Every structure is written in C-alpha cells, then in structure tokens.
C-alpha cells in the first residue's frame, strides 16, 4: 500500500479487533482495510469508510486500487 502512495497505519498492538477498530475511529482514520482470518482464507478484504459507515467487501487484490480511486480525488481537492 505504501508503494502505491497510500499512508498506512498498521495496528499491531495487543488486544481484540473491536478495540483496534474503536481506536482507529477515535483518531480519525478515514478508511480501514480489514483482512481477518476468514477473509484471508477466502481471499476477501473489507474496506470501512469512517465518514459514511459503509463497508465494501472485495477480493484482496482489488483493495489497494479501490482505496487509491477514493483517496486520490480527495487529496487533489485539498491541495
């Protein structure tokens, strides 16, 4: 993801997923890329948009491009 030009915060703290999601929301992380054990087995990732609360499930290999397509226009609008 970083090689694709995206800023990444990887939460490797101990604790459960729920606490990690709450922390990401608390600090204002706009998108969460979630790949849990089931997703890893099935090859699916989930993207959560903090602003809208919407969740999108897709093949893992499409997740980075999906995020770039959302984030790049927002970056251009803020410059």
TrEMBL record:
Keywords: Aminoacyl-tRNA synthetase, Ligase. Residues 2-69 form the Anticodon-binding domain. Its EC number is 6.1.1.15. GO terms for molecular function: proline-tRNA ligase activity. Pfam families: HGTP_anticodon (PF03129). This is Prolyl-tRNA synthetase, bacterial type.
